[in-house]
Amino acid sequence: MSDADQTTIDPTRTPLATKNKVLETGALLAQNFAPVNAVCAHLNAFHVYSSDPHRCVEANHYCSHISEDVRQCLIYDTPQPNARLIGVEYMISPKLYATLDTSERKRWHSHVTEVKSGMLIMPGPAGVPNAGWEVAETKEMEEVIGLYGKTYHFWQVDRGDKLPLGEPELMGSFTSEEQMPKGLLKERDERYGISSEQKKEKRGYIEEPEVQS
């Protein structure tokens, strides 16, 4: 299966009216979408609720660089045109993380386990062989493994919310492979036609940075 098989389905939604479709087309032709057009990577992983470590949700990150030390990612529930924007994540370098005080650091998480386990992936374009794309993906992982992320989700789609309700939720990352949702990971891998275990093996050479507390 490809990522085209993953769709956001909500029976309460009203189909987009023709006039709005026309407005969208006109905006694409006339307006400047520079911030969105700066997106340079699509990453897929699972985020854990800091308030409830037993809950997690699949997250599709669309990331851009503000600088060499800061990235920002829009997070959607699927990679489809009708996907719901469910959160945001900021990623910073170890240099910037070192400037944060102890209380602020508690809101940030490491990406070491996500990268080394093979759980964090960069889905390849349709028609591109996995073997070739994996070279580029692995190079990206060499960079991401050292970054720290601060993530908030606004829409709890995993519990079936039809709208973004309540307060934003601080999200974290898995700190061991034993914590990972094996069933969800298997379904995700099958959908994208990849193997997290194989990615884990290929990333074995990537050195683990010391995680700052």
Give a structural overview.
- The chain has 213 residues and is of the alpha+beta class.
- It contains 8 helices and 7 strands; from the N terminus they run H-H-E-E-E-E-H-H-E-H-H-E-E-H-H.
- Strands 1-2-3-4-6-7 form a 6-stranded antiparallel β-barrel.
- It is globular.
- The protein starts with 17 loop residues before the first helix and ends in an 11-residue tail after the last helix.
Largest sheet: 6 strands, antiparallel, barrel
Instruction: Estimate percent helicity.
Output: 25-40%
Cα end-to-end separation: 40 Å
Within the largest sheet, what's the order of strands?
A: 1-2-3-4-6-7
Figure out the total of helices.
8
Question: pLDDT below 50 for ≥5 consecutive residues: which ranges?
Answer: none
Gross morphology is globular
Q: Overall pLDDT, averaged?
A: 89
* Strand portion: 15-25%
Number of strands: 7
The assigned structural class equals alpha+beta
What's the helix-strand series?
A: HHEEEEHHEHHEEHH
The whole-angstrom Rg is: 18 Å
